[in-house]
Amino acid sequence: MTNAKEGEQGRVQGYAARVLENVARVLVGKEDVTRLALAGVLAGGHLLLEDAPGTGKTMLARALAASLGLGFRRVQFTPDLLPGDVTGVSVYRPATGEFEFVPGPIFTGLLLADEINRATPKTQSALLEAMGEGQVTESGVTHVLPQPFVVIATQNPIEHEGTYRLPEAQLDRFLLKLSVGYPTLEEEVRMLARLQGAHPIDTLGPVAGPADLLAARAAVQAVRVSDDLRRYMAALSARTRSHAQVALGGGPRASLALQGVAQALAALAGRGFVLPDDVKAAAPGVLAHRLTLRIEARLAGTRPEEVVADVLRQEPVPADPAAGGRLPGEHVPAGAAL
Predict the structure, then answer these.
(1) Are 32 and 56 within 8 A, CB to CB?
(2) Number of helices and strands (H, E) in the chain?
(3) pTM, 2 dp
(4) CATH T-level assignment (fold) for domain 223-320
(5) Chain Cα centroid distance, residue 206
(6) From the Swiss-Prot or TrEMBL record, what is one GO molecular function term (predicted)?
């Protein structure tokens, strides 16, 4: 059984390596954020990319969709966008005398909700049921979305005029919030050379298919998590709730997200078990956007990421697995060699 699980994790590692290498043909120097984004997809979650214009948010979404072999649709969110423009509408057909449901762009493999904070709360909430339940309801009829289904939303942290801040309930639906960031000088020079001619995104093909993603997700769910690490993750979420600078911290959904992303990172590394370093790597992207800081902390310029870093420093870390692959907190049978 153990050998079978190790084989599954090896296949996930190989699958992920192909995807990451393919995306790197388009995005220069963004291996870390691409790895976290892929971990979020493998964990079955949705992503929020927040960064300045022109940093590659849209390109990351397009490259992931192409590499994973998923259908891709992009919706530019604007104040006049209606919920039906995203989910679909029922159209009356005079020939039959009946209403027919016309699916919206949300019926795809990967939906890019570009500048989601420019749409009204009513339209933003149209994504809520789809992201949480994998379905949309129109005129009292439920329509199931195809699987796998991923939402990658983007927003600009600089311009706030004419925008509608995402409510905490909807932010909590995003498994990860990531920042692509600016390239270094050398990375930007390489990017200019690579993109001098035709853009590689136009010819980027799939290295896997939807069935491969579903199989990889199943393998990620089988990655072992010790009792000590589960306690560690729950303690991290609890510590955000009791932190002096936090008015509203991470809840149980944050702990579940932390576990899922840590499992995915372990699988990407070819391991069948989670290490504390996996949890630490997942924590900023999982926890920061779920924190509401106190007014005095915001006035002092404190960022949620700084609070997460403080929480990671404060919480004692479980020991790494012992030699031989035993996990922290794992039961040792009587008479077993230590």
Answers:
(1) no
(2) 13, 11
(3) 0.89
(4) Helicase, Ruva Protein; domain 3 (1.10.8)
(5) 20
(6) ATP hydrolysis activity
